[in-house]
Design brief:
The protein has 251 residues and is an all-alpha fold. The chain contains 14 helices and no strands. The chain starts with a helix and ends in an 8-residue tail after the last helix.
Amino acid sequence: MGVLKKLFGRGEPETAGEFVHRGTRYLEKGAQEKAVADFSAAIELDPRLLPAYMNRAGAHAALGRLDLAVADYSSVLQIAPHDDLARWALYMRAQMYDLQEDHDRAIADYTEIIRLDPQDPVNFCNRGNAYVAKRDFERAIADLTEAVRVGPDEPTAHHSLAWLLATCREARFRDGQKAMEHARKACELTEWSDASYFHSFAAALADVGQFGEAVKWQKKALESPDLPDDELADARLRLQLYEEGKPFLNE
């Protein structure tokens, strides 16, 4: 009862639900450590309270404590494997594994997610990208192709497949023409309003030797205010390659 004694000494909430409510407010304010303390207090009062584990996992993840986030998501799966929250916990645990570069465990979780929901293209995209990280390009292409099949109107599926087909370092897996088709489809589905998809379009254009067009679309991608700061340097490097008449090959 160590957590509770410390909190109750200040006249804090007395029920698990109240701790979860206040912890959620802390999360909204970015006060992650205080949120963790409240969710821990809630769990101490009610060890089967799933939202407390889910929210604490989110706070741990925000603080970079991925192992603790994985433990909390695993607790949800152990306590109530058939609860609606369990599927979300499984998905989030897979994301944590990916961030830890534990791609085998991520793939195992994505495979179970796909078994539970085989019609969601995003699930195939996630597993496909995990295979890319393992350099298992054959399985990656199979998954991303399946993502396009089950979700022909999902731009992320077309974009992910296009990027791999245009930039894969192993030549036998590259197909610039097919990459262009999927990259263009992603842009068309978003009415050319989402600059994040311009990167795969530019890469595909470069792969088939249309460097002038590749430069044009890479510049448009760089002009987007939504381009994350940590992607800026790589995006500029790709532009330089296209200006030099070279395609981009992913490491």
